[in-house]
Amino acid sequence: MNVLLAGGVGFLGSHFCDLLINKGHKVFCIDNLITGKKENINHLLKNKNFKFKKIDIIKNFSIKEKFDCIINFASIASPIFYDKYKIETLLVGSYGTYNLLELARKNKAKFLFTSTSEVYGDPFVNPQEETYWGNVNPIGKRSMYDESKRFSEALIMNYHRVYGIDTKIVRIFNTYGPRMNANDGRVVPQFINQALKNKPVTVFGKGTQTRSLCYVSDLINGIYKLLLSKEHTPVNIGNPNEMTVKEIAQTIIKLTNSKSKIIYKSLPEDDPKKRRPDISKAKKILKWQPRIDLKQGLLETIEYFKGRNK
Ligand code: UDP
Question: Which residues line ligand 1 (CB under 6 A)?
């Protein structure tokens, strides 16, 4: 396939570029570099099947090439960064998605969108299955992210209904691994970097809120299976291994042999109390489930950050 991949310089997008290139596809990667790091794709720049251009999908842009598939990973995905770039977050999940859908319509291309477990908000049900409509604050501190993803999902489903585009929506749960941004405040890179420097590990609230952490290679393989499937409705991809944030902190302190102590800071507004994917649908229709256990995934990630801190 000739693939246009938006947001291909970020943590997940760059791993998906690698996978597509390894499977023999051609990749035209675009990104506005607002949060992605160019070094994530440096190793691909010499590959004849890979091209990169700095393009902001919020704005009008034109690419002459014809694509079989358009994939949208473009997203300001960490709570610290979407708080910093509030309007950009809303626009990438509205104009950005719209511009790419129009391109898919004109190219008669397949379309895949990376949505999020945040569409479930602070859920009343646990685990969250795809049929749950969510409990989202439409004007709160996470609204720019949650509502832009929800709007994108609605736009995509209706492009599918009106134009018959072959669309896919993946709902991504917390994912970690190499190439995460050390400064974006997300729980795994934050705790690993604090622990490696023997600095206090900052748990928000009492640390009783839960997350379920999926290793990046598992997630990427699941998304590729979805891309090749016939499914149009959203599919959760994540690891159901649910832990409290305090347990995540303790595990990372242990695996890094750190002298760090846990300190407690105030819980950010609208921070979801529970999050765990129900992956029955992915298991059934994609024959997919995560394979990498937490210890193995965290050790890989710790090695990555150790290398960067040298
Ligand atoms: N968290 C924390 N300390 C930190 C960073 C995050 O306790 O230094 C918590 C945060 O409050 C949330 C969870 O870890 O409950 C996951 O946060 P993250 O920013 O990774 O993503 P989220 O799942 O909230 O979108």
Answer: 79, 174, 185-187, 190, 202-204, 209, 211, 245, 268, 271
